[in-house]
Amino acid sequence: MSGVATHTVLLTARAARGTLRIPIFAVMNLVQPLIWLLLFGQLFRRVVEIPGFAGAGGGSASYLEFMAPGVVMMTAMFGAAWAGTGFVQDMERGVMDRLLASPASRTAMMVASMLWYAVVAVAQGLVVLGVAWASGARFSGGLPAALAVLAAVLLLTCLIAAISNMFALLARSQEALIGLSQLIVLPLLFMSSAVMDTSLAAPWVATAARFNPFDWAVVAARGALSGAPDWGEILGRLGLLAAAVLVAATLATRAFRAYQRAA
Amino acid sequence: MQPITITRPGEAAIEVTGLVKTYRSRRRTVRALDGLDLSAAPGTVLGLLGPNGAGKSTAVRILATLSRPDSGHARVAGHDLLREPAAVRRAIGYVAQKPVSEPMDTGRENLLLAGRLQGLGAGEARARAAGLLRRFALEDAADRLVRTYSGGMARRLDVAVGLVHRPQVLFLDEPTTGLDPDSRTEMWSEIATMAGDEGMTVVLTTHYLDEADALADQLVIVDAGRVVTQGTPDELKDRLRGDGVTVTLVDEASAARAVEVAERVPQVGQVDRDGRLLRARAASGASALPVLLAALDVAGLEVREARLSRPSLDDVYRQHTGRTFSAGTQAEVAA
Questions:
Q1: Is B113's CB within 8 Å of A100's CB?
Q2: Of A9, A60, A90, A138, which is most buried, counting CB atoms within 10 Å of its CB?
Q3: What are the CB-based long-range contacts (under 8 Å, 24+) for B298-303?
């Protein structure tokens, strides 16, 4: 529907103004992943030499090359987990009620937030990959790989942002929202192959990772950037992510009703 | 774009019957609305007057589709509130009690976004925003961030945002709370214009009696989620009949004795005490006051001050709720 599309554009532009007027948050959000990339990368430089690391494609890749896609996804996830704070801020500022009492499309309100966080995450991902490159990491795969990484970043951000916004509408307070986000984000990070090959972890971690949407994004991006991409696996994971985004966005949009019932 | 009038001739712009809303928390249940009935004719100002917690804001939030009632029915601008919330949202403007503009956007950006979301085209929204900025004296501040605005400017912008699509019904929840006297007066004249010249129906909640008196065509006094009385401000005052008599005594003890004396004076009635004040009502204040003062003098009670007041909404309010408002128009009589 053109109404929803127009509203999405208008509300995404509003989110963009907000970020661009206080760019410090977007910059701060980059600091932590870069610390991971540069310090963690040094600390665990030689884990790639553990026999069996990184499975079939392993051996030739450096740890920096292994973890760079993981850190890109980490940045995307950490950033998107904050999406709900914008919703809570709107509630505190009365903007949420004003929008809900107007014909503003609820779908557009949800999608605009997801989209804008995705745009920011793509920019941050480029910085992370750029720093990794400058530190000596080399990626292959050309345009198809770039598109796959882009898709993984977009989908992961949309998924986490939708969940964060849903929490915001249900919890209606920053403290509760941040608590909930931490409860989700950290386990997703450590039950994944972002910084460690799960085949070397406890077997249950490897199993958990297979059901972890964050790991789907990491695996898709790493696979695409490796010298020997398994496109079946990559597209499969991206498909799973897309399905998860659809479900999460639908539920999150429904959460507006719960918010209004509680009001 | 002219407002499309969907209300049929003779149909009320707002028709509310038996609204009930209960808030439950772990400890207790609060009945915010307890069977509220309201009605407003098109192009009039309906004033909802009551103390904090009376249910005014809850009623407005429900009518603006932000909250659902437990039971009851309402039609707003000809649309059923529960069955056609989208149509209601297109027909209304809602200005909440708290500020509602985005502080990190400029005034113009707030208006443009609101206009576009309401379905105005880009050019139309720009023209409308410029017009409203001029009307609310915000032209100089139009391109500054709203967080730099003074309280009065921010409030004017909030109202402008609510008007951007020329709504049929505008809800103003305590529009002048926290404003300085000048800004209040300006806001009053704007509200009067909206209902008068522009034919908008305005629902105004307030806990200022003078505001309700000055603006409302119909006034509804709400207490504990229920309508205690309604009518035009004049009707409500007329129903009281007579004047208010207030006598200030030296201390509370003499005020208490003065009440006993006053109760024996046939010309005054409804006598009660408020600190060192004696309050009473009289059919004719001018003839009752000398009699009362003479009786007090005979009883040896010193009078500091005596006032006669024409019936005010304060009296109406006090009569119906048993509580008092501080404001009121009083004519002073030297003691």
A1: no
A2: A90
A3: B299/B257, B299/B258, B299/B261, B301/B249, B301/B250, B301/B254, B301/B257, B301/B258, B301/B261, B302/B249, B302/B250, B302/B254, B303/B247, B303/B248, B303/B249, B303/B335
